[in-house]
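re: the backbone from monday

yeah here it is again, tokenized this time
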């Protein structure tokens, strides 16, 4: 905004009659403008993005040639083996010659005693994919189980400014036996392949990729595990403030990654193996012990005579019981979150003379090391393989200096390696039901909204058991036996170990530390791996918004012309603002537009209690007349505690999922002090002995639900929650009426509100008045 723009703030009358006064006013307003809270959107600091395709549903629109689906999570696709076999060495013979073993030149050619299957090829080709922002460099990496002579060829294609597709650029032919090859001299008018990175002459917004497998035999066909596309815009300015920001619950972390020095390796190329040595350190951390020199041999890129090909290093790790890909990190906060899960990072850095103090090197055009933690000041703890000896491998680097070397100079390029399948996933549908038991769809426990973060615990068939990180309860693991909670397994099999670090969404109240994420089963088709798109309940709210209307529409930017309807309470990361529209991130590497009038910004301070109470009641009245829906927590169906959870969430306050937990988190107040937006709780709702009121909680509950299975008793007996609307009226989602309704306290309980007292019993039900306001 220019200084002249401040006339808008002053109205039509100018201060021009008094020049001095005008200057003073302008300076004051300018100073205020500088300190006013600013919405920082992703476009301000996001220069890189990694799109991960890891679930079967991610490949629904792909072209598949000679590929068979694999039972998830063992893999995604395998090469279909030929059912015919051909005798080796007789392909050029005519049929009658093959039968007799003779040729026209005379002499016999004996047939092989063993008939061998011919090598087969399978190809997976993506549709056109639109990036969430223009990019000028792009990397394709993938994981596959390969054996013997199996190979995996990666190719990528971009659309240029003239809406023309480039050539197919070969990103490398990876072989698990160490004979991998990058392809030289690949260039056209669109760009040039520089070993493992396609660098464009301009920018593009569209790409597609192709993965071709050659499998040598039916005993061990090549199996795809995941594909990752990482792109960056080198023209975007490095935003240091966002890059250095710590999460709101930052704490020091240091992973026990073994230390290995490349300098002590007994080979003449030891100065060139920082990448495989870093990889060997991370493999050792996960219990896979390989000599660094052996790792170097397996990732060697012969045409380039290098050991640091990013695609080959991650592909090699992916041939084992690991998931590995080339990723892009934009902020140290993102790195912190991965480390807190027990996942170290292998980072690519570049720096000039003396730009990274305490480094074994004065400068480098390209170096890789392991990030294993942060100290209490937020400085970066690493294992730097360039150290002259193992006892000096551990190095601590200044937070700002390291961020420039990694995030600014190399766009945060990293190897992310994890032995578990992605333990944190995102809901990609408008909403998804979470069931109490696998295979019993009618027993809905709760709902998760688009972009909600879930922890993936295990998969079984087309479903997964998850924890809803943004929904807390005292009974989050009630349905599991103690030994199952410890191991992360279930009687159904197909277990995935629980993450090392378990965190629950911060919530209001003195009992918040006891709360854990809500658990249940969800359909796999509703999930996506989205490292950057979903709301981070443990990070900053900067650059996020939440839908405040019961339902709202999103106009997709790269998902056809079909609009997407989303629910109140859905949170989005904002890419940029254009006029009255916000460009937001949609799970699965997509983007769309939503009108600003439909959302609240999450980084703004909460308004006064009086205003906030009015907004909560306004939000609640949107649901009046809606049908009651057991387990509902969205604009598509709602129950009592789901209604309270959502209307508070819309207004920037996170409450637990269930009525009894909401009761525990709130504080008791008298009826005289009850104000609009406060909560009224009751026990023993009429008619709920057999059906229950909301997804669960104290027995009796629907037979087969998590709460019923646990036999957990709740001392307060609360099983219903209502919002006080003022003037002796309340709003509730109730199974009694089968809908959301607003009624008087008299109509609900048969007693004058003025005579009601906190904790009194009415017709066998106790009534409690509570508030979450200070």
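seq for it, each position gets an aa:
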């Amino acid at each position: 905004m220019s200084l002249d723009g401040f006339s808008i703030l002053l109205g039509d009358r100018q201060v021009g009659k008094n020049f001095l006064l005008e200057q003073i006013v302008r300076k004051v307003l300018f100073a205020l403008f500088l300190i006013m809270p600013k919405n920082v959107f992703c476009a301000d600091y996001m220069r890189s993005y990694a799109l991960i395709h890891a679930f079967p549903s991610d490949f629904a629109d792909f072209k598949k040639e000679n590929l068979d689906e694999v039972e998830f999570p063992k893999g995604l696709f395998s090469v279909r083996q030929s059912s015919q076999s051909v005798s080796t060495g007789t392909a050029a013979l005519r049929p009658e010659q093959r039968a007799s073993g003779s040729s026209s030149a005379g002499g016999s050619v004996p047939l092989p005693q063993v008939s061998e299957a011919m090598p087969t090829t399978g190809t997976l080709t993506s549709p056109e994919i639109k990036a969430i922002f223009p990019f000028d460099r792009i990397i394709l990496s993938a994981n596959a189980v390969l054996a013997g002579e199996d190979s995996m060829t990666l190719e990528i294609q971009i659309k240029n400014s003239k809406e023309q597709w480039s050539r197919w650029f070969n990103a490398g032919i990876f072989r698990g036996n160490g004979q991998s090859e990058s392809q030289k001299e690949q260039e056209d008018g669109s760009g040039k392949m520089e070993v493992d990175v396609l660098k464009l002459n301009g920018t593009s917004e569209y790409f597609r990729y192709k993965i071709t497998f050659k499998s040598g035999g039916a005993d061990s066909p090549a199996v795809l595990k995941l594909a990752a596309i990482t792109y960056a815009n080198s023209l975007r300015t490095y935003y240091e403030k966002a890059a250095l920001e710590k999460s709101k619950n930052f704490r020091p972390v240091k992973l026990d990654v073994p230390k290995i020095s490349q300098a002590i390796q007994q080979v003449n190329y030891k100065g060139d193996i920082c990448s495989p040595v870093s990889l060997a350190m991370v493999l050792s951390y996960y219990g896979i012990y390989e000599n660094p020199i052996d790792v170097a041999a397996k990732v060697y890129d012969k045409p380039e005579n290098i050991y640091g090909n990013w695609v080959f290093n991650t592909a090699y790790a992916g041939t084992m019981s690991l998931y590995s890909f080339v990723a892009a990190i934009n902020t140290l906060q993102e790195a912190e979150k991965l480390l807190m899960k027990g996942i170290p990072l292998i980072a690519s850095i570049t720096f000039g003379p003396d730009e990274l103090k305490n480094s074994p090197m004065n400068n480098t055009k390209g170096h890789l090391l392991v990030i294993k933690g942060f100290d209490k000041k937020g400085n970066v703890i690493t294992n730097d393989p360039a150290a002259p000896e193992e006892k000096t491998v551990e190095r601590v680097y200044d937070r700002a200096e390291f961020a420039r070397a990694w995030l600014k100079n190399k766009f945060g390029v990293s190897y992310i390696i994890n032995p578990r399948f992605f333990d944190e996933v995102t809901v990609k549908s408008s909403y998804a039901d979470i069931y109490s038991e696998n295979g019993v769809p009618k027993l809905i426990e709760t709902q998760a909204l688009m972009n909600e973060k879930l922890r993936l615990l295990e998969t079984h068939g087309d479903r997964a058991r998850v924890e809803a990180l943004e929904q807390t309860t005292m009974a989050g693991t009630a349905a599991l036996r103690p030994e199952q909670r410890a191991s992360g397994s279930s009687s159904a099999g197909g277990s995935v170990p629980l993450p090392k670090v378990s965190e629950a969404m911060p919530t209001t109240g003195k009992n918040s530390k006891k709360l854990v994420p809500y658990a249940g089963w969800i359909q796999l088709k509703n999930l996506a791996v989205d490292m950057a798109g979903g709301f981070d309940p443990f990070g900053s709210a900067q650059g996020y918004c939440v839908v405040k209307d019961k339902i709202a529409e999103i106009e997709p930017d790269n998902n056809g012309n079909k609009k997407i309807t989303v629910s109140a309470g859905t949170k989005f990361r904002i890419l940029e603002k254009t006029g009255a529209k916000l460009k937001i991130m949609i799970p699965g590497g997509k983007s769309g537009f939503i009108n600003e009038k439909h959302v609240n910004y999450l980084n703004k301070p909460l308004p006064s209690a009086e205003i906030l109470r009015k907004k909560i009641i306004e939000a609640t009245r949107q649901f009046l007349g809606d049908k009651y829906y057991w387990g509902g927590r969205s604009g598509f169906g709602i129950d009592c505690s789901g209604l309270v959870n959502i209307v508070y969430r819309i207004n920037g306050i996170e409450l637990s999922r269930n009525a009894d937990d909401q009761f525990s988190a709130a504080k008791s107040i008298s009826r005289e002090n009850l104000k609009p937006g406060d909560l009224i709780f009751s026990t023993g709702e009429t008619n709920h002995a057999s059906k229950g009121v909301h997804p669960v909680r104290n027995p009796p509950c629907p037979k087969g639900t998590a709460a019923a299975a646990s036999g957990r008793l709740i001392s307060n007996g609360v099983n219903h929650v209502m919002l006080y609307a003022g003037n002796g009226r309340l709003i509730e989602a109730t199974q009694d009426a089968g809908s959301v309704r607003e009624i008087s306290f008299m109509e609900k309980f048969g007693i004058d509100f003025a005579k009601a007292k906190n904790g009194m019993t009415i017709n066998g039900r106790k009534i409690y008045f509570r508030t979450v306001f200070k």
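The two ends are 38 Å apart (CA to CA). Residues 1-37, 84-116, 476-513, 686-715 have pLDDT under 50 and may be disordered.
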